[in-house]
Specification:
By secondary structure, this protein is mainly alpha-helical. The chain is 35% helix and 5% strand. The protein has 2 domains: 62 residues, no CATH class; 90 residues, no CATH class. A hairpin with a 7-residue loop joins strand 1 and strand 2.
């Protein structure tokens, strides 16, 4: 099952206040018809997993972070006017598609923002990159809880035989 947020996060008065005072910024949407999915999965034998997935699709998934953001380094990259315009245009397009919450001026108490950069490769369109690795946000995630074993072509061949 997917882990819920730790009690230290759920009971943090700063975070609770930010969430309660601006619920429109934390909309959780899903492309699935959750009522139909619940009916379809009602007989699934792994209830803890199914319930955690349905809860995540309704309330949002927690990344397994321990809730300690003291190691988080806030960095604001300096962008050229061209890159700033690109980031603003890209962000607005994602907002228009419903992928982002409405814009707001400054981070609420308890919020952290990872650095965002523009990467331009020769002959390609520029790309917006959100750097989760160097900001410290991922430092609170226990890597032993997030390891993934990928199937190989050999595994696929064994299944197909």
């Amino acid at each position: 099952p997917f882990l819920p947020p730790p009690a230290s996060v759920l009971n943090d008065p700063v975070l609770v206040s930010s969430l309660a005072s601006h619920p429109h910024l934390f909309d959780v949407s899903s492309p699935f018809h959750l009522d139909k999915l619940r009916v379809f999965l009602r007989v699934h034998p792994n209830r803890p997993l199914v319930d955690s997935i349905l809860n995540g699709l309704t309330e949002g998934f927690w990344p397994g972070h321990d809730g300690d953001f003291s190691a988080t380094r806030e960095r604001t990259p300096h962008h050229s006017d061209e890159y700033y315009t690109f980031l603003a245009t890209t962000t607005f397009a994602e907002f228009e598609k419903g992928w982002l919450s409405e814009p707001f001026d400054s981070l609420l108490p308890g919020m952290h923002a990872p650095p965002t950069f523009v990467v331009r490769l020769p002959g390609r369109k520029p790309r917006q990159v959100v750097d989760q690795s160097s900001s410290g946000l991922n430092n609170g995630i226990d890597s032993s809880l997030t390891s993934v074993v990928y199937d190989t072509a050999r595994d696929l061949g064994a299944v197909l035989r």
